[in-house]
Amino acid sequence: MNRYDSVLEMIGNTPIVRVQHLDTGPCELYLKLESTNPGGSIKDRIALHMIEAAEKRGELKPGATIVEGTAGNTGLGLALVAQAKGYRLVLVIPDKMSREKISTLKAMGAEVIITRSDVGKGHPEYYQDLAQSTADEMAAQGHSVYFINQFANPDNPEAHELTTGPEMWSQMDEDLDAVVIGVGSSGTITGLSRYFAKVAPNLELVLADPEGSILADYIATGVVPKDAGGWLVEGIGEDFLPSISDFSRVKKAYAISDRDSFHMARELLENEGLMGGSSTGTLVAAAVRYCQEQTEPKRVLSLVCDTGNRYLSKVYNSYWLREHGLIDGSNFGDLRDLIARPMASRDAVVVGAEETLANAYKRMMLYDISQLPVMDGERIVGLIDESDILLAVYEDESRFGRAVSSAMVTDLEFIDYRATMDELLPIFNRDHVAIVMDEGKFLGLITRIDLLNFLRARANRD
Ligand SMILES: Cc1ncc(COP(=O)(O)O)c(C=O)c1O
Questions:
Q1: Residue 184 belongs to some domain of the structure
Q2: Which of 32, 33, 43, 302 to mutate to test the pocket of ligand 1 (most atoms within 8 A of CB)?
Q3: Does 43 qualify as catalytic in the annotation?
């Protein structure tokens, strides 16, 4: 084991592991674990190189502010390097990013500006445009600013040409037939393409692209599609061709659906013990397809680009997946399909009538929900929500010790699970939640957001 003087020395030299349990046809599939970088992703490499190259050129001076528009991982890499080197860091991030990433960035001392993710390049609120204008404004005010601009920064692909490529080649004993990768800024694919053109010109570069991105189509047809769709996988997929990109040696591409990406990410954890992010699912799903299509044995390498720890609220949260139509919920064809946390599967979060208000509060916080059914054994006897607790304890905090039954609401709206969806609306209009029953048996709650999630998931499926 190595000992290091600085966390920056731990960037790169990531391990490679062979996939053991997936069906890879005649091929051997290996994964390079970029998740083991100290910032948790492949972007640590470019953060270090882009900053040090700018320092060398004299463009980044001590005490300067670094600005970047980033979908997350580049920000975490930059935060790591900026912190170690004493730079102030301002990041513009689209609002679809996972909250784990944003909380981590803030905890690392970065200043975060959240912007819309529903607008495209050229719009002033698009994250890259807003980063550029933020950097311009700060410079106009006399600050020393360095705009990283990873999408147009040649130091980005160079980091991969100098480190990722040579590591891959030597770790695979200079015996490698194909590399399967995704594209965000295109730094990885462009840098690897340049490196392998020198040492292994016959090596195949295969693109793994989320469905909705324009890139897979572009590789297949040579034409840049006008419109991009949306996708939930983070870190990869594009709606334009970055100026640093060079796809000339990429001949094969797979468009992978969100559903397949999220399933594969979870399968990797379940069967291989590897916890990657959503893009890892895209890459491995494409790599497996490539492997299965081969007629001769090949050695194939792909990446675990970032750690799955920062997607606990998404990839590894079955409620989130169900809400987004990425896994199937129950399919009874009645109101039971709308219950997010059914009693039957032990997913319901409840509180006993004799438990304390402090317990009810703790449980709401833990599960991030705003109301709980109150139970007396198997029987539902009330509901308690945040405002009931607040009202009860506001003037006397010692009342957190009182029984839930003292503050719960008992005016309940029951609905039979065979009722129609239309019958929910009047209940919601009265500001109540629907308590779904099967004769005398409590099955679970339906709230407005459950109905919205159900309709959204149904629209996503259609
Ligand atoms: C999460 C994530 N970020 C970034 C990348 C690569 O991005 P770039 O094209 O910016 O080098 C990948 C590639 O697979 C990825 O999975």
A1: yes
A2: 43
A3: yes
Residues 30 and 167 both lie in one domain: yes
pLDDT at 2: 85
Residue-level pLDDT at 460: 66
Active site includes 117?
Answer: no
> Does the Cβ of 80 fall within 6 Å of ligand 1?
no
Structural domain count, the chain: 2
Question: Which of ligand 1's atoms lies nearest the C-alpha of 183?
Answer: 9
Contact present, 235 and 73 (Cβ < 8 Å): yes
CA distance 289 to 261: 12
Q: In this structure, is residue 323 part of a structural domain?
A: no
The pLDDT confidence band at residue 132, using thresholds 50, 70 and 90, is very high
Question: Could you tell me if the CB of 190 is within 6 A of ligand 1?
Answer: no
Q: Helix, strand, coil % (nearest 5) of the chain?
A: 40, 20, 40
Whether ligand 1 lies within 6 angstroms of the CB of 42 is answered as yes
- For β-strands 371-376 and 351-352, DSSP reports them as parallel
Looking at residue 387, its amino acid is S
Domain co-membership, 429 together with 370: yes
Q: What is the CATH number of the domain that holds 347?
A: 3.10.580.10
**Which of 316, 350, 384 delimits the end of a domain?**
316
Residue 335 has pLDDT above 90, yes or no: yes
- Angstrom distance (rounded) from CA 224 to CA 217: 7
pLDDT digits (tens, 9 = 90+) for 249-266: 999 999 999 999 999 999
Q: Is residue 321 part of a domain?
A: no
**Torsion angle (degrees, nearest 10) of CA 314, 315, 318, 324:** 60
Q: pTM for this structure?
A: 0.84
- Domain span at residue 437? 331-461
* pLDDT > 90: percent of the chain: 81
Q: How far is the CA of 47 from the centre of ligand 1 (A)?
A: 13
In a domain, 322, yes or no: no
End-of-domain residue from the set 316, 345, 362: 316
Q: Average pLDDT in the 40-46 region?
A: 97
Q: Which two tokens stand for residue 59?
A: 């463009």
